Amino acid sequence: MAREQLAVLNALDAAKTQWYHFTAIVIAGMGFFTDAYDLFCISLVTKLLGRIYYHVDGAPKPGSLPPNVAAAVNGVALVGTLVGQLFFGWLGDKMGRKKVYGLTLILMVVSSIASGLSFGSSAKGVIATLCFFRFWLGFGIGGDYPLSATIMSEYANKKTRGAFIAAVFAMQGFGILGGGIVGLIVSAAFDHAYKAPAYSVDAAASTVPQADYVWRIILMFGAIPAALTYYWRMKMPETARFTALVAKKAKQAAADMSKVLNMDLEAEEDKVIKIATDRTNSFGLFSREFLKRHGLHLLGTTTTWFLLDIAFYSQNLFQKDIFSAIGWIPKAASMNAIHEVYKIARAQTLIALCSTVPGYWFTVALIDIMGRFAIQLMGFFFMTVFMFALAIPYHHWTLEPNRIGFVIMYSLTFFFANFGPNATTFVVPAEIFPARLRSTCHGISAAAGKAGAIVGAFGFLYAAQSTDPTKTDAGYPPGIGVRYSLIMLGVINFFGMLFTLLVPESKGKSLEELTGENGDENDEKQIQMDPSRTVPI
Predict the structure, then answer these.
(1) What whole-number distance in Å separates Cα of residue 118 and Cα of residue 389?
(2) CA of 303: how far to CAs of 213, 281, 492, in Å?
């Protein structure tokens, strides 16, 4: 039997796009700006850290981080993020979205600053301290994933909900772009102020003492946008869906949303009690009922995010190696330490500007027209195509006349990652699970993604090494090379297409319609029978 929806939730679903929607996007989105900035800015400074702390007198090449150190510096924040997603996702369903939201932001701000202040009397001490604080930075960032998605999902109207959640995630693009721009400004300023010869001219003088400030300033800058939004996060009321459906406080939900929507809403305590006592609204995460209703959905959201992030993070974390391979970044010995940061930042900024940022906003514009399923399937398809197109004639792309073509193709894989599964894997888990499990299930899906990111970040540091032992980075064994790494990524993206078939379409439906929390069993059965429908049933 279908049951009438709570008036407060109906009002949210039917609300026209208002100022509070944009406020929520900015407040939640600034957390994601910081997330992306902090996770990706480390790729700007890893080579600088190698030059400063692992310099070897008389070596033909500048110092570089040993393989285990590079893996730790690149990957420790991802491990922290995975743990944070699981912990804060669960906590968001227990304590409420708002209570936990401020805690994650404080953790991010403090850890960003502390990362830049990493101390130690030896290279090992500095790197160990940096890794410690970047773990806690990742832990805070992890909490932002399920909480931001769930809050935006529960505040949005059903007509443009996909665009609003995607817009929060799209701030990641600006975070990556911001990291590149800050890297450019800081490195250009220091390079201009402290002139230094190339490594090949004078190895010792090529890294000026002031270079130690460059990476610290770049890492600490991430705290600023997050700190600016703390006050507004604390002023946001708890979402009506948590207050009414999980905390069972009908009066509080009506009062909060009356202020947000500028309209009088009735507190329907009888309906809340009926929903609370309904057997279909009481099953837990580890129950047979959850497995029957949402088991395939959770498998779909976790596997697609896992596979996507293997490809996405390995691309981001070894893009500086790709740029070196095609000659966009000169040989390390031909530059001084700070100028190398400038070159890497320039390449990252161009990729973000030309492909990463536009891809996110194409999703925002089209997700409520095309639907989540179609965008995700299309994104995985084109990522597969472009990966193989780069990999199979790889030698062709390394030749001087074809290098710009390589960068265009590489940019297109980023474009279709972001106008594709990188955005939709974030959106869908915030819509298709019940309110009392929504944050937890989003956290589980996101944590699966970060497990993929760890595979990408750690595995491809080794895999992308040249098969020729004389051409590998210092300390690394020969790998399978960039070409075969790209072929592997193409195969991974193909499997992403297959697992997308498990993910239901949520376009144009209320959250309660999708999850059956109104007690509409027919709706629930339709979703289970046809999980991959690309139009609302």
Answers:
(1) 42
(2) 41, 26, 11
What SS3 string covers 235-287? HCCCCHHHHHHHCCCHHHHHHHHHHHHCCCCCCCHHHHHHHHHCHHHCCCCCC
526 confidence band (pLDDT: 50, 70, 90): very low
What's the pLDDT tens digit per position in 209-245? Answer: 999 999 999 999 988 888 888 888 888 888 888 888 8
Reported as a single tens digit per residue, the pLDDT across 280-293 is: 667 888 888 899 98
| Residues in CB range of 282: below 8 A, 6 or more apart | none
Q: What DSSP state is assigned to residue 429?
A: G
Residue bearing tokens 């960039």: 482
Q: Give which of 191, 484, 503, 518 is closest to 342, Cα–Cα.
A: 191
Q: Which residue, 294, 392, 260, 349, is CA-closest to 40? A: 349
Residue closest to 193 by CA, chosen among 348, 388, 398, 336? 336
Rounded to whole angstroms, the Cα distance separating 353 from 119 reads 34
The token pair that represents 532 in the structure block: 């991959």
DSSP notation for 166-233: HHHHHHHHHHHHHHHHHHHHHHHHHHHHS----TTT-TTTTS-TTHHHHHHHHHHTTHHHHHHTHHHH
What is the three-class DSSP state of 528? helix
The number of CA neighbours under 13 Å toward the Cβ of 383 is 34
Look up tokens 């990641």; give the residue.
172
Report the distance separating Cα 208 and Cα 15, nearest Å: 58
- Taken as a whole, the chain contains a residue count of 537
| Euclidean distance between CA atoms 446 and 451, whole angstroms | 9
What confidence tens digit (pLDDT) does each residue in 85-129 have? 999 999 999 999 988 988 998 999 999 999 999 988 788 999 999
Question: SS3 of 64, please?
Answer: coil
Please give the Cα distance from 424 to 363 (Å, whole number).
Answer: 8
pLDDT for 537: 30
At residue 55, φ and ψ (nearest 5 deg) are -70, 135
Q: Which domains does the chain have, with CATH numbers?
A: 17-265+287-516 (1.20.1250.20)
What is the tens place of the pLDDT at every residue in 133-178?
Answer: 999 999 999 999 999 999 999 988 888 999 999 999 999 889 988 9
Q: How far is C-alpha 155 from the geometric centre of its chain's CA atoms? A: 21
Taking the C-alpha atoms of residue 226 and residue 246, their distance in angstroms, rounded to an integer, is 28
